[in-house]
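Archive maintenance. Older records in this collection stored only the sequence; we are now back-filling the structure field for every entry so that each record is complete. The fields below show one back-filled record exactly as it appears after the update. Entries are processed alphabetically, and WD40 repeat domain-containing protein is next in the queue.

ARCHIVE ENTRY
Title: WD40 repeat domain-containing protein
Organism field: Aquamicrobium zhengzhouense
Length field: 324
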Amino acid sequence: MPTVAPLDLDGHCISACWLDGLPFFALADGQVHRLDNGHKTIEAHDGLLCAAVALDEKSMLTGGEDGRVCSIAADGSVTEIANLGRKWVNTVATGPRGAIAFGAGRAAHVRLPDGTINDFQHQRSVEGIAFAPKGLRIAVARYNGATLHFPAAAGKPVELEWAGAHAAATFSPDGNFLVTTMQENALHGWKLSDGKHMRMAGYPAKVKSLSWSAKGRWLASSGAPAAIVWPFQTKDGPIGKAPLELGTRADTMVTAVAFHTTDEILAIGYADGMVMAARVADQKEILLRRPGKGAITSMSWDGEGRRIAFGTEAGDCGVIDVAG
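Back-filled structure field:
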């Protein structure tokens, strides 16, 4: 049976992740907590922590309303990477060879592997940034679509248009597709080789969580009473295909999803704090955590695929040992 080691914090968990085998929990109040021979707290930002993402297995990247972008190491040390003054850093992203990107206002800033920082201005605010899996290429989610840049090369950006507000972006692991979450209850995607559109609509709520399976065959999403899992096995992705529905519950919504590091097993978090795992192949389910306080906001598998760090909007965090 799975076992749960709780960590009761006070505040909204932005990100739960693993660094060097240790669970880290970044909270909206600017503090980052870690479990390392006891509970330890890091003062990362003065004011709101707006975005956090694991940089690699050794450090995580955070941005906040204090205009700072910080790297936090597994030992808890904090290194300031950039300081934009009074501008809120609302999105951060990590890329190949240590490249990072962060967004504030209408600007996307990219720090290249050699330490050079290039800035890209947009007509509307930068809502989300993602790196392509190969080569130095970023996508910026914005109002009415997304913009693709090659930060290390001169040249005009590629504009991908679709009416509406786009909030976050993700490339498929093979780099062939770009998918954005939207302010309306939908996803939108582009097949990058020919610009074909992928409309993924019909959600009863906004999609706030996305996760690719290890080999990129599936894209899981929140925003419904089940995890909606889109097929990407063919050259046209989900165009003309129906998604799988995993972990269906009639009375509550899925709020977070996280695919296993190697297997097509999906961790599913719900609005009531429950966590379930479901296998794509046969849709078999197993309960990992009973309902608790607050909706699950973030989940992450450790490098071995045995444990899941999770956080909720109420600070009800912890670690699930799937093997028990």
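Update note: The chain has a mean pLDDT of 95. The first strand starts at residue 3 and ends at 8.
Entry marked complete.
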